[in-house]
Amino acid sequence: MTRVAAVDCGTNSIRLLISEIQEDGKIRDISRTMEIVRLGQGVDATGEFEPEALARTRAALENYVKQMKFEKVERVRMVATSATRDAKNHREFFDMTEELLGQVQPGARAEVISGEEEALLSFTGAVGDLHSEEGPYCVIDLGGGSTEFVVGTIDGEILGSHSAQMGCVRLTERIMRNDPPTEAEIEIATDYVAERMAEVEKIVPIDKALTFVGCAGTFTTLSALAQGMERYDADSIHGSELRFDALRVLTRQMIGLPSDVRALNPVIHPGRADVIGGGCVAVEGIMTMIERNSEARSFFISEKDILDGIITGLAAKLLS
Q1: Which domain holds residue 21?
Q2: DSSP state, residue 300
Q3: Nearest to 277 by CA among 253, 249, 298, 301
Q4: DSSP conformation class of 178
Q5: Global pTM?
Q6: What CA–CA distance (Å, rounded) separates 34 from 54?
Q7: Interhelix angle for 90-101 vs 51-70, to 10°?
Q8: Average pLDDT over residues 109-119
Q9: pLDDT value for 8
């Protein structure tokens, strides 16, 4: 048995999954951890990581390395997505990851992955618990700086993918700057999302998908809110269904609330309260795009995503 770890560092959060690869090839999850570090804070405007954002990310990764060493992790893969693709001073970030991850596996450091690989890893993780008769699937991974769309089948055939440059942090920092956002800001953000959705329609065969799967923090938080949870329950969120008509009522409400009011809800992470309005505008645009191209009128929510895809890849290498 070998223990491995996956780390995903995005625009808004850094997440860790530690798993055990058993001799028969089965994967057993040991722990999942998430911290909001907002690494991409200000990158859209300045093109550089802010020192405070790098310090927050370093502190979180130091804690993750301690967890990995405690759990006797032997192999680790860390991927870095939208924020690191955009930042001019990315060398400081990568040097830091090599210093820390090298304590677990010599030579390990964060990798910048393309939007296409990000989409594939997210797809692999998100559809792991689904059934072939429900496919083809469209997995939608809504992040802080970008949103990945990938259509494929349960056996791994990818029919099309695209990384759209929109996410909850990017929309908030670039457009929805007031708290709560003004009607004009909401309209501009909506138009921006519509432009990104037009790009998706040209590149990804949305019309071939039967089931639409939403993953990452905006989608999972909306599921928790829709279910009226008093505390975040990942088991109840995973596999839940959000119907478009009811979801639009919820997203409208979230967009119009100030962040301090959103933060009062126990299932909204304090680090997500100020950006989930931007995420909701993105979700609304995604629903409209789906309605133009499919008869589907709901999302299925997955707690599994790019981290699970990374672990699957590490397991394949170990067993090959």
Answers
A1: 1-112+305-317
A2: E
A3: 253
A4: S
A5: 0.85
A6: 16
A7: 20
A8: 82
A9: 93
Structure tokens at 3: 């223990």
Which stretch of DSSP H or E encloses residue 226?
Answer: helix 217-226
- Please report which helix (H) or strand (E) contains residue 283, including its range: helix 276-293
Phi and psi at 96, nearest 5°, equal -65, -45
- Count of domains forming the chain: 2
**Would you place residue 85 in the very low, low, confident or very high pLDDT band (cuts 50, 70, 90)?**
low
pLDDT for res 23:
82
Q: How far apart are CA 273 and CA 313, in angstroms?
A: 33
**Contact call for residues 306 and 7 (beta carbons, < 8 A):** no
Q: Is the dihedral of CA 44, 50, 53, 57 positive or negative?
A: positive
Question: Under DSSP, is residue 15 helix (H, G, I), strand (E, B) or coil?
Answer: strand
> Is 122 domain-assigned?
no
Residues 138 and 6 in one domain: no
Report the percentage of the chain scoring pLDDT > 90.
Answer: 71
CA dihedral 279, 281, 282, 285 (to 10 degrees): 160
> Please, which pLDDT band fits residue 83 given cuts at 50, 70 and 90?
low
**Cα separation of 277 and 218, whole Å?**
9
Distance (Å, rounded) from C-alpha 310 to C-alpha 113? 12
Task: Find the mean pLDDT for residues 193-219.
Answer: 95
Rounded to the nearest integer, the mean pLDDT of the chain is 91
Residues 130-182 have pLDDT tens digits of 766 788 999 999 988 889 899 998 877 889 999 899 999 999 989 999 999 99
Residues composing the chain: 320
pLDDT tens figures, 230-289 = 999 999 999 999 999 999 999 999 999 999 999 999 999 888 999 999 999 999 999 999
The Cα–Cα gap between 276 and 282 comes to: 10
Residue among 309, 13, 246 at smallest CA distance from 145: 13
Residue 76 sits in a domain of what CATH number? 3.30.420.40
CATH of the domain at 198: 3.30.420.150
Q: Is residue 117 part of a domain?
A: no
Closest CA to 298 of 249, 242, 245, 251: 242
